[in-house]
Design brief:
The complex is a heterotrimer of chains A (484), B (427) and C (427). Chain A has 2 domains: 284 residues, Uridine Diphospho-n-acetylenolpyruvylglucosamine Reductase, domain 3 (2-Layer Sandwich); 110 residues, Alpha-Beta Plaits, CATH 3.30.70.2190. Chain A has a 7-stranded antiparallel beta sheet with strand order 15-12-14-13-17-18-16, with helices on both faces. Chain A has a 5-stranded antiparallel beta sheet with strand order 5-6-10-8-9. In chain A, strands 1-2-4-3 form a 4-stranded mixed beta sheet. By secondary structure, chain A is α+β, with helices and mostly antiparallel strands. Chain A contains 16 helices and 18 strands. Chain B is built from 24 helices and 7 strands. Helix content of chain B is 52%, strand content 7%. Chain B is α/β, with parallel strands linked by helices and 427 residues long. In chain C, a hairpin with a 4-residue loop joins strand 5 and strand 6. The chains are: A alpha+beta (484), B alpha/beta (427), C alpha+beta (427). Chains in contact: A-B, A-C.
Chain lengths: 484, 427, 427
């Protein structure tokens, strides 16, 4: 088995002592066995062990640590809860990992202004939990929301089912505290809706940790909708379901969410959670409307009718909040439920224009056949954001290779249909090689210029997002040459 | 940097069932459900990190060094992660196997070895435990328990602090009159008295029987109780766990009971897993499976026959979910429903009610520092509710939480569900 | 990045005009007209991206300043001295792609918002940004100046709707980011960086947006109040009770100008299907009382248009404040000018009809301080020509943020030619 290929350590005792003096002895991890658990995040196709893990509690500590690294020219990678699906927290030529999991304090709740101030290690769901009793919620709700951190959400500009109506992370972040790679702490944006000068908050959200380490965020809160209607509609096949999606949205109102699960996923989810999904259906849609109680029955009724016209064999409304919660729990844990079907899976995150959903799903099933791998689909249909889940067994090298190739082929198809490589998981280490499919060399150069504004020496999460011209990536091969 | 396409992973050591390790997809949804992760916020103290280490150990990519052993030891075995896990990882099973692997292959310090051996030699045997506690009981009669506590230091002192009063008769700890069920066709239930429970909290056994009888069950008793083996299961001594299991299977199946309950949820869960534990036993695999299927829980059984008549109790109660009850047996609503059926009672939910209090079998004896942190966290949540009673259904949690509340000078009473219900029974 | 040494006056102009015509074709350059005269000395009207690239390269070589002209009004109001070259995109107003079923639209930056929305309306859709005078607002200007209007409350602003952007930057390089799909995190978010950058980083040439459905029905509720705090209290109550399309408040001056009485006026718009309209109408009357007048259909549209297009006094000092929403009341009151406020968003335009000679900067400073105290910032939108020299139009960000902005400007515009000297901190 190969070990970390950075054969010579760039970190030494002096650095360790300096970091320990900043964050305390219990905030540094440097022994091999413990570090091993940090060698991958939710993207498990690649592994790389950091040399030092730091767990700071404050921005000042982060700043101190980054200064120590900066003086030595050592790169770092930030990590929240390690739930990312594109290897964003994978150390690639970054000997030091800065984990924000202990920066998990909610600093201030301001319901009157619908704002909340949190440290970046706060768990996504804990934000909503903190304001729920006052009738508010934090909109971005990635499936990993029970564990993922706000800092990780900011890095990846995370979405979730309800972003169809309410937008993704970047639409809800007003202000940030960012520690630049040289250790300077900067305040970007603030509590007001308009900003002074360039929208640097917008540049940092979605920068995948390459701008520095975000330590604090001011987030916008939304009022809980007065009521909801959640419909579960069963279709004979994915094609009819996805056509219904476009028709529902085209009917003139944006639902809170429209999610789709195909046959394979329905069965996995049903086996795991017994929520009463129709296991004989080819696909189901979860369609949710929210807003005033007054108009919802009409909206839900119209959607049910559209579903029927598009071939739905059965549509039913969640009868209680408990039933709705169960449906969403099943949907949000669908990825994990797939873990019951095969030893490993890898999920893609491509996007197509919504009307191309039937086409991309046909393409995915063709890919599945060509590569001899089962692929399930559970995704944000309203956004055209697909999540094909490719099943494989890591003990069979041939399957690993095929899983990677199949994923890439699906992404190429997305781009060819006018879509994108990723809707919410980020490019990370995973999809860097595909960036040239989407962007011209000039596009990438300008993006690199933007990154260098924050991180001129590429110390923050190096070797991510933008491929180095010529240097690093061979699109078709699984063994990527990554400079370390 | 390790890349896909290298040599495929394969098992080099038998740490735990290798196939089961593949159930974990490394999604991380378990992190916040893990009490130790909540405290240290470090991956190696999370279920995902531990499973990852198990796999790395199994594949020979990591060694069983002090760190590995330490992080496995630190696991409470509460199985909160199983409730959170979407992939159905059988964590309880994995950690039990891994503990056996650790016990067989890792050499602890002498002190640790002694502590563990002592626990294993005393706890499962009520007579030994009673004998050991005799001096303390005497001291308590002489009102000198405080002196003993002061005379001790370190771990022994912490242990003494955890013990409930031994001599006093607390709430409803009066001997239960055994009402005979009126209906001869009513199902027969047996209460497994448990080794530690019968010494330290026997009223909970008796009151369980009393409630069941009041609900109309035929209550039968075993002739002497054998330890369920949970302690061994959780400390890697699978051999003796199987021995205890076999004895229990024989004895309980003979009793002809239709259902079995225990005042200690750890015991219930252990018995519920006999089927798995003895699956390779040529003689008892079948009966073990049958017995496991009979394991029930007090409030669920009671509700099935309709709650008995309770008198009015004007009080506020918060309910703590014992780990093995909620995560092991999946019992969450029934105790609450039953409590809420008591007239005048107001149930106030605490946040993280289903998070381990740190008791976890003998965990608070072997890992006092982490146990104490969790006890503090639990006490804070409880005190925030301002409830007069903390009701729970496991004696271990009761001692742990009561000790912490005592330290804080709180007047909230920690009462086992069976004791509480007995107190509320009309008549 | 001072523009002092750069070309821009006198005989150079004739020369430049000929040069540009030679470079990108006859008839592409012209003299500025009306408002444009305050913005630039020569207007160039390219037809293609390549022509813009040529112009940019020329300007970089010869150190000639240029700026996208967009709606010349914005530029004319914030520039103290004109740039040499104003790039008008009047000949680049194609709809590159409109996919009603995908609800996305890709536009050349010279299209006006008005024409875009006339097209979208055929499919009952709209690009829901509502700055003043949509027929005169180009997409480029809307993005560059981050124009917004009342609907920001419900639909967000440009930054929430812009899903792709293409611009010509230094070296005449065309760079694109984002794409044509509604959800996309591939690559850096240059859309955010370009939004509100006032042409200081390059010339935006195309933009892709999400479009939204036009609601089934729209009603505008109008209610006047005799006092300043009453209108704010009512607005706060409404904002809690309902999810409105917009929630506007006018001080007496603009109310009277719009044909309402000389009073404080609240204008709340709401939309939805019939049941929702009934519910909201009832709620509006409940909160605002029977005095609230509900305008429907064409009346509502007309009233909204006049609210949206409201003119600021031509010779006045106008600023936009953005603060924590609940502090808007205090902020606009203490600024003591006329105002139009977007309640709920914490944004308001405030103005003085006239300012005494030499007092403009003093007034701006005072307002700015109030905005800072209320957690926000202030940007001057318009000032009498004679006083522009003394005024800092943009608020200063924090020192750290400003350091980054300087680096951003330097990286994207190393020659310092893109609309230099009038943006935040003199960038």
């Amino acid at each position: 088995m190969s070990r970390d290929q950075s054969s010579e350590r760039r970190t030494g005792r002096a650095l360790l002592a300096e970091i320990a003096a900043i964050v305390g002895g219990d905030g540094v991890v440097f022994r091999e066995t413990e570090l091993k658990t940090y060698e991958c995040d939710g993207w498990t196709m690649e592994r790389s062990t950091p040399e030092i893990l730091v767990m700071p509690r404050t921005a000042t500590q982060v700043s101190g640590v980054l200064k120590a690294l900066y003086r030595r020219g050592i790169a770092f990678v930030a990590r929240g809860a390690g739930t990312g699906l594109s290897g964003g927290a994978l150390p690639v030529g970054a000997p030091v990992m800065v984990c924000t999991s202990r920066m998990n304090r909610i600093l201030a709740i301001d319901p009157a202004n619908r704002r909340i101030d949190v440290q970046s290690g706060v768990v996504n769901l804990h934000v909503t939990n903190a304001v729920k009793s006052r009738g508010f919620f934090y909109a971005p709700d990635p499936s990993s929301q029970v564990a993922c951190t706000i800092g990780g959400n900011i890095a990846e500009n995370s979405g979730g089912p309800h972003t169809l109506k309410y937008g993704v992370t970047t639409n809800h972040v007003l202000g940030l505290e960012l520690v630049l790679p040289d250790g300077e702490i900067v305040q970007l944006g603030g509590a007001a809706e308009e900003r002074c000068g360039y929208d640097l908050v917008g540049a940092v959200v979605g920068a995948e940790g390459t701008a520095g380490v975000v330590t604090r965020a001011t987030l916008g809160l939304l009022r809980e909708p007065e009521s909801r209607r959640t419909i579960l509609a069963a279709f004979p096949d994915a094609d009819s379901a996805t056509r219904a999606v476009s028709a529902i949205i085209a009917s003139g109102v944006i639902p809170g969410a429209i999610e789709m699960m195909d046959r394979l996923i329905i069965r996995a989810v049903e086996d795991a959670f017994h929520v009463g999904l129709p296991t004989d259906a080819g696909a189901v849609l979860i369609v949710e409307f929210d807003g005033y109680a007054a108009g919802l029955d009409e909206r839900a009724g119209a959607a049910v009718e559209i579903a029927r016209q598009h071939g739905a064999t059965d549509s039913r409304l969640a009868r209680s909040e408990a039933e709705r919660a169960l449906l969403w729990k099943a949907r949000k844990r669908a990825f994990g439920a797939v873990g019951r079907l095969a030893p490993n899976y890898v999920t893609q995150d491509g996007v197509v224009p919504r009307t191309h959903l039937p086409k991309i799903l046909r393409e995915i099933s063709a890919v599945s056949e060509r590569y001899g791998l089962a692929i399930g689909n559970v995704f944000h249909a309203g956004d055209g954001n697909i999540h094909p889940i490719i099943l494989y067994d890591e003990r069979d090298p041939g399957q690993v290779q095929r899983a990677l190739d199949a994923g890439r082929e699906i992404l190429r198809a997305c781009v060819a249909m006018g879509g994108s490589l990723t809707g919410e998981h980020g490019i990370g280490a995973e999809k860097m090689g595909e960036m040239p499919l989407l962007f011209s060399p000039d596009d990438l150069l300008v993006m690199a210029e933007l990154r260098h504004v924050f991180d001129p020496d590429e110390r923050a999460n190096p070797n991510k997002v933008i491929p180095k011209p010529g240097a690093c990536v061979e699109v078709a091969a699984p063994r990527r040459q990554v400079p370390v | 940097m390790e890349q896909p396409g290298g040599s495929p992973p394969h098992p080099a050591r038998d740490v735990a069932d290798y196939e089961l390790l593949f159930d974990c997809v490394h999604c991380g949804l378990c992190l916040e459900a893990c009490p130790t992760y909540k405290v240290t916020r470090a991956e190696m103290d999370s279920p995902r990190g531990r499973v990852y280490l198990m796999k790395a150990l199994a594949e020979g990519r990591a060694e069983l060094d002090d760190d590995a052993a330490r992080h496995f030891d630190l696991c409470l075995g509460c199985r909160g992660c199983e409730t959170a896990c979407p992939s159905g990882v059988r964590y309880g099973r994995l950690i039990e196997d891994t503990r056996a692997f650790v016990e067989a292959n890792y050499r602890r310090s002498r002190g640790e070895r002694m502590v563990r051996r002592a626990l294993g030699m005393i706890f499962p045997y009520p007579r030994r435990l009673r004998a050991m506690l005799a001096p303390l009981r005497l001291a308590e009669r002489l009102r000198m328990r405080g002196l003993i506590r002061l005379a001790l230091s370190g771990r022994p002192r912490e242990w003494i602090e955890l013990l409930p009063p031994l001599a006093a008769t607390p709430i409803a700890r009066k001997s239960a009159a055994r009402a005979e069920a009126l209906d001869p066709d009513a199902p027969a239930v047996v209460v497994h008295h448990g080794c530690v429970t019968q010494v330290l909290a026997n009223s909970e056994n008796e009151n369980s029987e009393r409630i069941l009888a009041a609900a109309g069950y035929r209550v039968t008793r075993l002739r002497g109780t054998v330890c369920c083996g949970a302690l061994d299961l959780h400390s890697g001594n699978l051999k003796r766990a199987r021995k205890f299991a076999r004895e229990n299977v024989r004895q309980i199946m003979q009793s002809g009971a239709d259902a079995l309950v225990s005042a200690a949820s750890g015991c219930s869960t252990a018995i519920a897993e006999y089927g798995e534990l003895l699956k390779d036993d040529p003689e008892l695999a079948g009966p073990a499976r049958a017995l496991s299927a009979k394991v029930r829980e007090l409030s669920g059984l009671v509700l099935e026959r309709g709650a008995p008549k309770f008198r009015e109790m004007r009080c506020t109660v918060t309910y703590h979910d014992a780990c093995h009850l909620v995560h092991g047996l999946g019992v969450r609503e029934a105790p609450r429903t039953l409590l809420k059926s008591i007239p005048g009672l107001r149930l106030i939910e605490m946040p993280e009610s289903d998070m381990c209090c740190g008791s976890a079998g003998s965990y608070n004896l072997t890992e006092p520092a982490m146990a104490r942190q969790l006890a503090r966290r639990k006490a804070e949540r409880i005190l925030a509710t301002k409830a007069q009673y903390v009701v729970l259904a496991n004696p271990g949690c009761e001692f742990q939480i009561a000790a912490e509340l005592r330290r804080r000078g709180s007047r909230a009473k920690v009462v086992h569900l069976a004791d509480f219900l007995a107190m509320a029974l009309a008549d | 990045m001072s523009s002092g040494h750069m070309a821009g006056v006198g005989t150079d102009r004739e020369h430049l005009l000929r040069e540009i015509e030679r470079l990108i074709g006859a008839g592409r350059a012209r003299e500025p007209m009306s408002l444009e005269t305050a913005a630039c000395e020569i207007v160039v009207e390219p037809e293609t991206v390549e022509e813009i690239a040529e112009a940019v390269r020329k300007c970089e070589t010869d150190k000639i300043t240029l700026a996208p002209l967009g709606s010349a009004r914005t530029l004319s109001q914030i520039r103290k001295t004109p740039v040499a070259l104003g790039v008008s995109l009047a000949r680049m107003r194609r709809v590159i792609a409109y996919e009603p079923d995908d609800m996305t639209i890709v536009l050349e930056a010279g299209s006006t918002l008005g024409e875009v929305n006339r097209l979208a309306a055929q499919h009952r859709q709209r690009l829901p940004v509502d700055p003043r005078e949509p027929e005169r607002t180009t997409i480029g200007a809307m993005v560059g100046a981050a124009h917004a209007g009342p609907a920001r409350l419900s639909e967000g602003t440009v930054r929430d709707l812009l899903i792709g952007v293409g611009f010509v930057g230094h070296g005449g390089r065309l760079a694109r980011a984002g794409g044509r799909v509604v959800k996309n995190v591939a690559g850096y978010d240059l859309m955010k960086v370009m939004t509100g950058s006032f042409g200081t980083l390059g010339i935006a040439v195309e933009a892709a947006f999400k479009v939204r459905p036009i609601p089934e029905d729209y009603t505008l509720a109008v209610r006047k109040f005799g006092r300043h705090n009453e209108v704010f209290e009512a607005a706060a109550a409404l904002n809690t009770a309902l999810s409105l399309v917009h929630l506007e408040m006018l001080s007496p001056g603009p109310s009277a100008a719009l044909g309402y009485d000389y009073d404080w006026v609240l204008m709340a718009g709401f939309a939805g299907n019939r049941a929702e309209m009934d519910y909201q109408s009832a709620k509006i009357h409940e909160v605002l009382g029977s005095e609230a007048r509900l305008l429907k259909g064409a009346d509502a549209d007309a009233a909204f248009a006049s609210l949206r297009d409201m003119e600021f006094p031509a010779e006045g000092l106008v600023a936009q404040i953005a603060v924590r929403p609940v502090e808007l009341l205090r902020c606009v009151r203490d600024c003591s000018g006329e105002y139009r406020a977007h309640a709920g968003s914490g944004v308001a335009q405030i103005w003085l009809e006239e300012v005494g000679e030499g007092t403009a900067q003093q007034t701006v400073s005072r307002w700015r301080e109030l905005a800072h105290v209320c957690g926000g910032n202030l940007r001057v939108l318009q000032a009498p020509e004679t006083m522009r020299g003394e005024i800092e139009f943009f608020d200063r960000p924090s020192a750290g943020a400003f350091g980054l902005m300087k680096r951003l400007k330097q990286a994207f515009d190393p020659a310092g030619i893109f609309n230099p000297g009038c943006f935040v901190g003199g960038l």
